[in-house]
């Protein structure tokens, strides 16, 4: 029996399993199928769009972005700022309630795969970076495991922070998608990346997870270790991005833009951020 099979048996033996009637949870097959389709779209999509005009998606983007605002606001409101440590079994009504919120967050990560499809249809291929694909692909698997085995308040901390950031982020995208008439109302765009940096969501999760490795908390250490490793990987990737893309680069044009070197601009385009980085991602 393989290591992965043993690990699944270990989880099934010791951890809380969520209600199997919830969609995309009872078996890993659906989410693996979605993941494979996602990779296929990333590989085939740009080729199919190469000789076509960008697809006009303004109405779709307006509905999508404001829909994500509502969903993110709902998850943040329902999740609330609950306990620093919450059990992951049916030990309380609060735990069961937060397990349901965790499922909605997991489902939102599946929906957000649409971001990549929109990039491809609008021929924004420079946005299809390793960071973008890594983040989207890994989040759906992480949250599948989280919802199936350890759903609850402890698991939802990163979802709580991320939902708040996404309320503001998708609100900006939705307003921007309405057209140039909204530009004068979007003066606060430059503060969005600051919001992400100030929230330091992955650093908070890292500290929170490390704390629970040593605290008397009813949450599996093995899952804490997985979350910690994943958070560190995102910190490394984000730090690499921000190192290459200084926060205030939008206020002070770099020599690459001033020189107008086509070759250098193409090199810079390889490091364009995915949708999280609001200063440089064009979703409108």
UniProtKB/TrEMBL annotation:
<feature type="transmembrane region" description="Helical">
    <location>
        <begin position="20"/>
        <end position="44"/>
    </location>
</feature>
<keyword id="KW-0472">Membrane</keyword>
<feature type="transmembrane region" description="Helical">
    <location>
        <begin position="97"/>
        <end position="121"/>
    </location>
</feature>
<keyword id="KW-0275">Fatty acid biosynthesis</keyword>
<dbReference type="InterPro" id="IPR030457">
    <property type="entry name" value="ELO_CS"/>
</dbReference>
<dbReference type="InterPro" id="IPR002076">
    <property type="entry name" value="ELO_fam"/>
</dbReference>
<keyword id="KW-0444">Lipid biosynthesis</keyword>
<feature type="transmembrane region" description="Helical">
    <location>
        <begin position="128"/>
        <end position="145"/>
    </location>
</feature>
<dbReference type="GO" id="GO:0005789">
    <property type="term" value="C:endoplasmic reticulum membrane"/>
</dbReference>
<keyword id="KW-0812">Transmembrane</keyword>
<dbReference type="GO" id="GO:0019367">
    <property type="term" value="P:fatty acid elongation, saturated fatty acid"/>
</dbReference>
<dbReference type="Pfam" id="PF01151">
    <property type="entry name" value="ELO"/>
</dbReference>
<protein>
    <recommendedName>
        <fullName>Elongation of very long chain fatty acids protein</fullName>
        <ecNumber>2.3.1.199</ecNumber>
    </recommendedName>
</protein>
<feature type="transmembrane region" description="Helical">
    <location>
        <begin position="56"/>
        <end position="77"/>
    </location>
</feature>
<feature type="transmembrane region" description="Helical">
    <location>
        <begin position="226"/>
        <end position="243"/>
    </location>
</feature>
<keyword id="KW-0276">Fatty acid metabolism</keyword>
<keyword id="KW-1133">Transmembrane helix</keyword>
<keyword id="KW-0808">Transferase</keyword>
<dbReference type="GO" id="GO:0034626">
    <property type="term" value="P:fatty acid elongation, polyunsaturated fatty acid"/>
</dbReference>
<dbReference type="GO" id="GO:0034625">
    <property type="term" value="P:fatty acid elongation, monounsaturated fatty acid"/>
</dbReference>
<dbReference type="GO" id="GO:0030148">
    <property type="term" value="P:sphingolipid biosynthetic process"/>
</dbReference>
<dbReference type="GO" id="GO:0042761">
    <property type="term" value="P:very long-chain fatty acid biosynthetic process"/>
</dbReference>
<keyword id="KW-0443">Lipid metabolism</keyword>
<feature type="transmembrane region" description="Helical">
    <location>
        <begin position="194"/>
        <end position="214"/>
    </location>
</feature>
<dbReference type="GO" id="GO:0009922">
    <property type="term" value="F:fatty acid elongase activity"/>
</dbReference>
<comment type="similarity">
    <text>Belongs to the ELO family.</text>
</comment>
<feature type="transmembrane region" description="Helical">
    <location>
        <begin position="151"/>
        <end position="173"/>
    </location>
</feature>
């Amino acid at each position: 029996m393989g290591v992965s099979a043993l690990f699944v048996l270990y989880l099934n033996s010791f951890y809380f399993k969520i209600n199997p009637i919830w969609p995309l949870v009872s078996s890993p097959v659906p989410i693996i199928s979605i993941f494979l389709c996602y990779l296929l779209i990333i590989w085939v999509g740009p080729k199919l769009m190469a000789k076509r005009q960008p697809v006009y998606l303004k109405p779709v983007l307006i509905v999508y972005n404001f829909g994500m605002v509502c969903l993110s606001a709902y998850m943040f409101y329902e999740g609330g700022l609950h306990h620093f440590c919450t059990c992951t079994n049916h030990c309380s009504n609060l735990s069961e309630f937060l397990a349901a919120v965790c499922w909605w967050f997991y489902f939102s990560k599946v929906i957000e795969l649409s971001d990549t499809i929109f990039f491809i249809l609008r021929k924004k291929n420079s946005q299809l970076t390793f960071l973008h694909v890594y983040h989207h692909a890994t989040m759906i698997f992480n949250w599948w495991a989280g919802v199936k085995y350890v759903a609850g308040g402890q698991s939802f901390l990163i979802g709580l922070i991320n939902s708040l950031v996404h309320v503001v982020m998708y609100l900006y995208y939705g307003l921007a998608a309405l057209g140039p008439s909204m530009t004068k109302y979007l003066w606060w765009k430059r503060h969005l990346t600051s919001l992400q940096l100030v929230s330091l969501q992955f650093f908070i999760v890292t500290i929170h997870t490390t704390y629970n490795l040593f605290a008397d908390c009813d949450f599996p250490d093995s899952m804490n270790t997985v979350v910690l490793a994943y958070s560190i990987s995102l910190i490394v990737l984000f730090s690499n991005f921000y190192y290459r893309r200084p926060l205030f680069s939008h206020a002070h044009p770099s020599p690459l833009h001033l020189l107008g070197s086509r070759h250098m601009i193409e090199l810079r385009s390889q490091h364009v951020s995915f949708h999280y980085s609001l200063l440089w991602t064009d979703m409108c």
